[in-house]
Amino acid sequence: xxxxxxxxxxxxxxxxxxxxxxxxxxxxxxxxxxxxxxxxxxxxxxxxxxxxxxxxxxxxxxxxxxxxxxxxxxxxxxxxxxxxxxxxxxxxxxxxxxxxxxxxxxxxxxxxxxxxxxxxxxxxxxxxxxxxxxxxxxxxxxxxxxxxxxxxxxxxxxxxxxxxxxxxxxxxxxxxxxxxxxxxxxxxxxxxxxxxxxxxxxxxxxxxxxxxxxxxxxxxxxxxxxxxxxxxxxxxxxxxxxxxxxxxxxxxxxxxxxxxxxxxxxxxxxxxxxxxxxxxxxxxxxxxxxxxxxxxxxxxxxxxxxxxxxxxxxxxxxxxxxxxxx
Length: 326
Fold this sequence. Notes:
This protein is an all-alpha fold. The chain is built from 13 helices and no strands.
């Protein structure tokens, strides 16, 4: 049987547990939080006062913070891109009864709330040029991006396991900064978004864990492939109006690192956490090639940590069109 057919069979096997996965990791729309739970109520007399409070508190947060929050928001709003490539995986199809398609649509619906609430909050803050933010979002969705997985579910689930944990780290650190500045509503909002991301991370890591039980060698090789080629960040192709694709990511990444929202050390720590979550040191019945892959993965965090220690993050003042003139 070809590798392609084996992957499809594994996906069909996991699909039989889809109801359990969805009950465990996803929350019905009627029970989960919604963006309006964190935003001023426009139907109340206190609406203007609440907006003015947000605007005043927002003045206390520096430009670097808002640049990172804008980048996080745009990344969250690029959901059409993520849904489209997940629906193209081997073993997934658009059939309404397909369990994996149900998972992808419901997961996307949960994620959609993140960009929705953050976008509205940015708008109310008065700190950013929303038209430029919207242009960047439109570019990011229309440009698309290649995460290097093709239609391979094994590689895709490594990617989502990594990326969901990365977004957890980013939103959680945004919450810490906002809380220190007394911006309690924003801190609470970011913290609960981080909670969603952690729950989704746990789901995708379980999918990989189950695949390791059925097809350990190929899953190990897929994991190694993704780590060798590095995880492509969804924000890789960020650009402003009248700019070429990908011209903004390096500057955005530098800002995120220097304020401690997402750093190279976080990247390394996530690799270590995935090794531990999947207990790759304990997996048996591996082919010689997969054994070499495991050895590579076990040594990777320490090697990358030493490299990361040598990275110097610039303190350059970048001029993002997202930010309003001082």
